[in-house]
Design a protein that fits this description.
This protein has about 280 residues and is an alpha/beta fold. The protein has one domain: Protocatechuate 3,4-Dioxygenase, subunit A. The chain has eight helices and twelve strands.
Length: about 280
């Protein structure tokens, strides 16, 4: 298997992720009315945790300066989106979705691209001629927590290719390769035809890779399909769906795997895979 890092540099992918985040998000607008007392509490507790770690482990000036240099380099590499999404986001998601009764979610990750092509309720994701990989047919429904099919609900799907690479964040793929949006009808059903993605390493030639190497960690993510599921009057669900038997399901570098997100694909006589997996959305409020 060709890993992500062999075909795309951390600098290139980091720059793409940072640029996309800055273009698509309005992070400060969402919190502009946050009380100063909350900012004070969060900032002080984070700093207190850092101070406690320094005291507990008797951090030296050499280690402190190495940390300063590394933090500067993370910014220069454009890898803050990667760092936050891999090592922090899963806890934010856990807190944010704890109240839900419908389907489980997980992290978005750094490689989402909005406004993917509209494909209807039953279609193949955009693919290159002869797209490498095992064909995968996935069917399911989108309902509310009371079981009502959600006509007009949207399923935004994206995933890496057979080499572990994402379109728009690596070279050699069309802009919308393996990305698309499905809109369900009155029955709430959808059918997605695509290929099974592969596990991949997050980029390791930049600052995040240096942390991984220094700590003796690994950089692998298990194979997964990303989704965003939305419907009027319902909470947006962001999730990743995983495949049984992947060696990194239990030690995902991003800590994003949940048992509720595991698919159960069935092998077909022609070598393709079929799977059923549906979504239940929580009403807003």
């Amino acid at each position: 298997m060709t890993s992500y890092t062999e075909t795309s540099t951390a600098a290139a992918s980091g720059a793409s992720a940072t640029e996309r985040f800055q273009a698509d998000k309005s992070p400060f607008a969402a919190v502009r009315d946050t009380p100063k007392e909350r900012v004070d509490t969060l900032a002080r507790e984070i700093l207190d945790a850092v101070h406690a770690t320094i005291r507990k482990h008797q951090v030296t000036y050499d280690e402190y300066n190495a940390l300063k240099a590394w933090l500067i380099q993370v910014g220069e590499d454009g890898e803050w989106p990667l760092f936050c999404d891999v090592w922090v986001e899963h806890v934010v998601e856990e807190v944010a979705s704890a109240h839900r009764h419908g389907s489980k979610g997980t992290i978005e990750g750094p490689y989402y691209a909005p406004n993917s092509p509209e494909l209807g309720a039953d279609a193949a994701l955009p693919m290159r001629p002869g797209e490498p990989g095992t064909p995968l047919a996935w069917e399911g429904t989108i309902t509310s927590t009371d079981g009502t099919p959600l006509e007009g609900a949207k399923l935004d799907v994206w995933h890496c290719d057979d080499q572990g690479l994402y379109s728009q964040f690596s070279e050699g793929q069309p802009e919308w390769n393996l990305r698309g949006t499905f809109t369900v009808g009155p029955d709430g059903r959808f059918k997605v035809r695509t290929i099974k993605p592969q596990p991949y390493q997050i980029p390791t030639d930049g600052s995040c890779g240096r942390l991984i190497d220094a700590a003796g960690w690994h950089a692998w993510r298990p194979a997964h399909v990303h989704v965003k599921v939305s419907a009027p009057g319902h909470e947006l669900l962001t999730a990743q769906l995983y495949f049984p038997g992947d060696e990194h399901n239990d030690d995902d570098v991003a800590s994003a795997v949940k048992p509720e997100l595991m698919l159960a694909p069935v092998s077909q006589p022609d070598g393709s895979l079929s799977v059923e997996y549906s979504f239940v959305l929580d009403p807003i409020g």
